[in-house]
Amino acid sequence: MSNNKKYWKGVEELNDSTAFQKVKSQEFNEYLPAEDFLGDEGLLENSNTSRRDFLKYLGFGVTAASLAACEAPVNKVIPHVIKGDKTNPGVANYFATNYSDGFDYCDIVVKTREGRPIKIEGNKKSPLTVGAINARVNSSVLSLYDEKRYRAPQIGGEPTTWPKFNSTVKKQLAEVLAKGGKVRILTNTITSPSTKKLVGEFVAANPSSDIKHVSYDAVSASGMLEANNETFGVAALPTYNLSKAKSIVSIGADFMNSFPSSLELTSQYAKGRKPENGWMSKHFQFEASLSLSGSNADVRMPMKPSEYGKTVVAIYNYLNDNKTGAAPKVKMAVEHLMANKGESIVLCGSNDKNIQNIVIAINEMLGNYGKTINIDKPSFQRQGVDADVAGLVKELKGGSVDVLIIDGANPVYNMPSEMDFKGAMSKAKTSIVFASRPNETSVEAKMVGAAAHYLESWNDANAVAGHYSITQPSISSLFDTKQFQDCLISWMGMDGNYYNYIKATWSAVAFPMQSKTLSFEDFWNKTLEAGYFSAKTSETVSATFTDKASSAITAIAKIKSSDLEIEFYSKVGIGNGNQSHNPWLQELPDPISKITWDNYIAMNPAEARENGFATEYGEQKDADTINITINGVTFENIPVVAQPGQAPGTLSVALGYGQTIGKSNEVIGFNAYSAMKGMQNYSTDVSMEAAGDKYQIATTQTHQTVMGRTSVVRETTLDVFQTGVKDDFNPAHMLATHEGPININDVDLWAAHPVATAGHHWGMSIDLNSCIGCGSCVTSCNSENNVPVVGKDEIRRAREMHWMRIDRYFSSSPESVEDRNFGEMESPEDNPQVVHQPMMCQHCNHAPCETVCPVAATTHSNEGLNQMTYNRCIGTRYCANNCPYKVRRFNWFNYMGYDKFADLNPAQDDLGRMVLNPDVTVRARGVMEKCSLCVQRIQTGKLDAKKESRPVMDGDIETACSSACPTNAITFGDYNDKSSKVLAASQGNRAYRVIEEVGTQSNVYYQTKVRNVEPNIA
Amino acid sequence: MNVISFKKPTNIFLGLFSFLLAMSLSSTTLQAQEDGEKLFKSYCASCHSPGANQLVGPGLAGVYDKYEREWLYKWIKNSSALIATGDAQAISVYEQYNKVIMPAQPVTNVQIDAILDYLKVYAEAAPVVAVVVPPTVVVEDEGMSGYAIAGIVVLFLILIILLRKVQYIFTAAKAREAGEDMPEETTMTQALGLTISQNKTIFALMGIVCLALFAKGGWDSAFGVGVYQGYEPEQPIKFSHELHAGTNGIDCNYCHNSASYSKSAGIPSPNLCMNCHTYIQEGPQYGKEEIGKIYAALDFDPVTKTYGPNQKPIKWVKVHNLPDHVYFNHSQHVAIGKIACEKCHGPVETYTVGKQYAELTMGWCINCHRETKVQMADNGYYDEIHNRLPEELKKQYLEDGTITVSELGGIECAKCHY
Questions:
Q1: Is residue A46 part of a domain?
Q2: For residues B37 and B32, what is the distance between their CA atoms, to the nearest angstrom?
Q3: Using a CB-CB distance cutoff of 8 angstroms, which residues of chain A are in contact with residue B311?
Q4: In this complex, which of B269, B325, B379 lies closest to A871 when CB atoms are compared?
Q5: What is the pTM of this model?
Q6: ipTM
Q7: What mean pLDDT is predicted for residues A949-965?
């Protein structure tokens, strides 16, 4: 297919502005005054530093450096007093555990070195998440080493000891319980059966008192819970099977990111997106702001968030043969759904139970229950019911609550300001908050329990019916911290600790569910090793469907739209804000906007231009600011960003920002939670005005551009792919010669590289069809390779250090002007198609960087790797200038020592340095660095094979990115292993190499993206 | 090894013949000895020497003749039970060696036989001393030291001044005799200047030589920057490798066992020391003082043999300091490369204080990688790598019958720097 599409990274590139042209022509686009200085004789002559001075400094410098080098270092080496059996210095240990913070659930494996957790990866053996992991989970290891963590419990703001803390609480509880007082426990969604049982026992032990446990989700799925309760009598979420769905329709549900069970859904989704299987799911997305899921949709239609309900009703009516008033894309979606009954899924992100009721009715009509959706096997990953939370706030305000205990939630920060939780909380006679670092709620509490990090804790989880898992600590407590559960056990006057309690629960509940193992200890140890236990007897709840559609339709009809609406969404990095203090996540560019370290108001580009706001951003180009009032809450001087794909008449803003980070308590962004109303994730009550100020936005959008080369991205449509003629969708590059066109790979300046058959030949294949752009690989790479955090200011100067980036290209073609819903000419920015392309060093066999290095600091290995030797590099940066893929990064500063980064870079303090991977050098200032294809993992994999006297098996070695990919889009392997997946992938019909025409012979292949769309909609 | 192709068919027959011969002759006894040595090291070596010297327990030389085999089986498998039965020989052995109970060993009779066979062979063979390659570093004649040169220069200056003075005195005396005016005495600088101006060539040559010497000295010392060969820091405990590895013949891997499976060889934790030092409470040189430091670290009471709660680690001074940008893995060299510890660490059994034997410079590493043969035999990993070699490379690399580390890419940057 001759691809006449235009690919652009941002509005800057689409318009090809002069500033953008200037930026793209330079690898290092900061202004260097060398020419001015050296060209101006007057300046040179009047300079204070004479040649003699220069020589003096040089001489002093050389002498000082050599004197300093003469001093022998005295290092201490301190062995264990009593060494454990499996704690061997230099050998990594792995512990299976899980991450469950009420927003994400993930079965994980923690890598520890010398007793310190340093890396988190997905548990590939888990039947639930099958190794999928996201950026939030794999970055959570850094939160363990947060300088600002509580180091001891506090009473009245003063540090105290645990015995004193516990006895004080116990005494106060005893008084309250004696008089039958009111105790309220507020937590995030708890999937732990043991914690629930423990709280249940606490309630049961005090029958005369009024004790209640309330679950609270900042990003609520209450609407779905209530709808399931009304229609099926099950107050839980269903489980899905997207891998079997041929038709996926999502109305405002970002199921790859913030929707409950997003990790399970993501890995399932990828299974249905393999065109080689003969079929591919078709994904329709109706949404206001361009979400991660929307960016991967085959057909996307921007609409206002208030129209979600109407769209759902339109689908429902269409299924009931009432076909009037359905928009063309809605019609297309429904017809596709009807053609795939029982093999489709309709999802909706609305928190309105009426809308969810209709969604349930639609799925029921399509016969999806029991096939692609399962309510018999529910998921417990969101449990917060908004009415219960509102009830608690009302009780608190009434002053009737004696003791309020909060664990794992930060309601003062993330409850809407209309609820005034801070005021309500102050009316509780005693408030006890468990938090791992000071937050908005803990500073208001009378007593603060210094909570243990989840990597220091024992717990268990039951995320989905039948799937039980154990959370085990991978390090003993760094500080004097305890878990809430341990304290509750002590307050209840019970013997033992929470660990024993969990074991007792498992012995009573999970152990009888299996018959394989006879001894409980064996069962426990096996489960601990595996991390999970799948109950053989599938726990099913009986669910019968009751139709609630008619009343819901009446309610939905009352939803009003307005000219300007705003949607609250969760970003891929920050999520619900639980980890907004994590610098890795702050620095992860948003997959859609590529903006780091901020939240902002996103606006349709055409509307931004109408309002006179800047639509292009860079080092010298700032965003405009507005004053915005949402639901009566005003935010001043908020940056506004033009976001292609944003529905006209809508704005969007990310939640989870406005918390403090770093030692100096810098506030990042603003708290959009405070403007929510009734926990609804959009508002129609919005007004804004220009504030007239400028704001510096740190975006990586214009960095590392492709210089207008057209062979970077290849895509096609399913029917073209299915014809099987490779030249139609993935033609070879031909070079025009006097003998006629010749395949580019047959023409070479250099001799063939000897790695072709001998030894190993490492390489990678990246499937653009599976890559959803989630950024999990980026943070995984950061944590594996000690990539420094550089902060907002340096990112604005295009000095981000990420070895791996995900290039997000918008694309538009002349044909896409069809489907004009708004009666006007559609501009390319209104609803562009999106391609996510992971990009890192391509390990070219004929690498342009290697030939220009004056000191041979970058060389080629006989295993096909492009090696970077930091201690040989003198920092000329020629290599970066000569790299067509723009993947080399220069260390401008000593990030772990320089004051400028004291607040951001975790390697600046002893605690944060504990997360560094000891097998990877921490690079010094003035050297180049880049992706090494995780050479440390390759070396370890080879050594393990040698020790076991066997060849390296395909799949043994995984790079940090390939292992973190939730959709398995990245495959790493050995081309010389004839049975390797990567070899097969490189020979497939979809395989191509980026910018192959320049003859770099790179070792990384990409697989052409295939969209499941009819050609006329492409 | 089935991977190396022989050049002539006769070689195959020759090889096959000698192999069969070796097999039929003594493969079984060889096997037993090897097993016996392994078993001895894993079960006995922590308390017994295979020679006559006493460690925790007595040296085992001659036990196979001294006692009945059946009695030995019983004793080794459970000595306390044997003592409890009132066996006279058992009681006398128990009392002879300070009433220290020998722990029961989980070994079979066959294994005990193998161990005893090994002991026999050990005693018969000349005591095996680890072959230590003397350091190949040629110690260069340092020539004159800087002080000597400075001294000579000073002497030379004084000589010039004295000669000038003498010359002046003679001139003055001559003038006085002749009744002429006294000539003016030249200053030191003038004198020096005069000498130089009269002997320009010599001084220029001397200047050049001095400059060249100075430059060479600077160049040589720059190579020594960061090289700490012979570094021998004082340690918190005066631990002697000479006593442990030399006199007592304890295997390196007993204490530094992680060398075979980990990146680092490891410093033994005090609980490992206690395997022997629970009983050996006094050393030959420092008495109780140095061993007492282990007890202090573990809060161990040597009298009651109980451990207290106040344990604190021992802070040893690191001897071998590789730069942070170098990755070195012991197990690759020890377990796969089968490099003897002595190759890099020298004759450790003669060191009273741990010291850095090798230069540990990059040139030193690379030289070894260029010369060392890869241990490809019986390793499935290398079999596969070998199979992948194209014929012409096989010819090129196997001309001398070996593949060196560097031929497999062992001197590429990213083998050690990443």
A1: no
A2: 8
A3: 81-82
A4: B325
A5: 0.83
A6: 0.84
A7: 92
